């Protein structure tokens, strides 16, 4: 039953990409992404039923609107177990929470840290491409935020991605990078 749920979700996303982005649906890709998401959830979802986890937390952190008129981008990345194929997703909302845009992208990488950094990089590229100067980019990967907000070099496969992200952040001084709890970033999952 769980597999069917993941498959239906991917079919829905593929349908939306066909309608809104005019992409050609690929059945094999839909099945592969569904399997990848299922494996990723089993690995990173801690094996608990989300309904039970939510019931345990009385007041889980949720998405919070901004107080100013800037945009908020929630970014997330996922990497399949024993795979180099991952995905990044970004949801763009205004300060009232209205969905303005979203995108997903398949990426090839070696680590979950690198896929998270690629997610932030893609969000920054989106902002630059759309000439959006004021925004908050949120990710649930605190390590990425720490590395991008510091100047020291990192010995990592993500070094190039971090450098490119830092450069974009310097070019857009009104763009803030922030960490948010995983439960507040579920919109980008």
TrEMBL record:
Kindly provide the name given to this protein in its UniProt entry: RNase H type-1 domain-containing protein
One short Pfam name that applies is RVT_3
Q: Which SUPFAM superfamilies match?
A: Ribonuclease H-like
What InterPro entries is this protein classified in? Answer: RNase_H-like_dom_plant (IPR044730), RNase_H-like_EbsB-rel (IPR052929), RNaseH-like_sf (IPR012337), RNaseH_domain (IPR002156), RNaseH_sf (IPR036397)
Domain RNase H type-1 stretches: 74-189
| Source taxon at top rank | Eukaryota
Q: Which CDD domains match?
A: RNase_H_like
Q: What are the leading ranks of the lineage?
A: Eukaryota, Viridiplantae, Streptophyta, Embryophyta, Tracheophyta
